[in-house]
Specification:
Blueprint lengths: L10 E6 L11 E15 L2 E6 L3 E4 L5 E4 L4 E8 L13 H16 L3 H14 L15 H9 L9 H7 L4 H12 L3 H18 L4 H7 L5 H10 L2
Antiparallel strand pairs: 1-6, 2-3, 2-4, 2-5, 2-6
Helix pairs in contact: 1-2, 4-5, 6-7, 7-8
Length: 229
């Protein structure tokens, strides 16, 4: 290992050449390639860091570095346990930041050592998943009452039902199948039949029960009642 550009802080720019032998340490060591190619063996696993590539060496894992042509890397020695969550490769944001931090280390800018490690970790960690939006609840009873009041006026369309609960027809269809295990048309037909049965139980003639529950004819209602008998 060669020169350390800023020896008084966790961040440094280091040059690597011939192997000095394997070793380990009690902290995370984070490397981002700036120039050349660095060959590593970490806990018996080989990897290579070229310019724009990186690696996180966990605490306690023996490792060895070697670069036949010489390599230059930004190196962070960190005790922050959050590095255990870091991915195996730096993000494009990390690479841009590493280039700046390397220059800042070389110039000895003081805030590089106080702010740089946290920024490097933040850029390397996977972006947090976007919070899931709370699903809009559907008042199925109110929706059924609304549909049941329209049988005598016109055909109830799925798009109308979906619009009343602020969903697309496809979303509404998915929610209907999730809630009842049937398609939207099957759900509507079930509402019609249930209403027709209630009307018949109240003593209304088949023709009137059919009209009020949206059936095209008394025979259509009679057939539906037979199928569900």
């Amino acid at each position: 290992m060669g020169r350390i550009a800023h020896p008084n802080g966790p961040l440094s720019v280091r040059t690597y050449g011939a192997s000095r032998g394997s070793h380990d340490h009690g902290h995370f060591q984070v490397l981002v390639g700036l120039e050349g190619a660095l060959e590593l063996e970490v806990a018996g696993r080989g990897c290579r860091i070229g310019a724009g590539q990186g690696c996180v060496v966990p605490p306690g894992e023996r490792h060895d570095f070697e670069s036949r042509q010489g390599a230059r890397c930004l190196v962070l020695d960190s005790h922050d346990s959050a590095w255990a969550l870091a991915g195996t490769a730096p993000t494009p944001a990390t690479l841009a930041l590493a280039s700046y931090l390397a220059e800042a280390c070389s110039r000895g800018l003081p805030r590089t050592q106080t702010m740089g490690p946290a920024l490097l970790l933040e850029s390397w960690l996977p972006a947090p998943a976007a919070p899931r939006r709370a699903r809009r609840e559907i008042d199925w009873a109110a929706l059924a009452d609304w549909a049941s009041g329209r049988w005598t006026e016109e055909r109830v369309e799925v798009a109308e039902l979906a619009a009343r609960v602020h969903l697309s027809p496809a979303q509404f269809a998915a929610r209907c199948r999730e809630a009842f295990g049937v398609s939207t048309q099957q759900w509507l037909r079930g509402l019609q039949l249930d209403q027709a049965r209630r009307l018949r139980a109240q003593g209304l003639p088949v023709a009137e029960a059919a009209r009020r529950s949206g059936y095209r004819s008394p025979s259509a209602l009679t057939a539906a009642l037979r199928r569900r008998a």
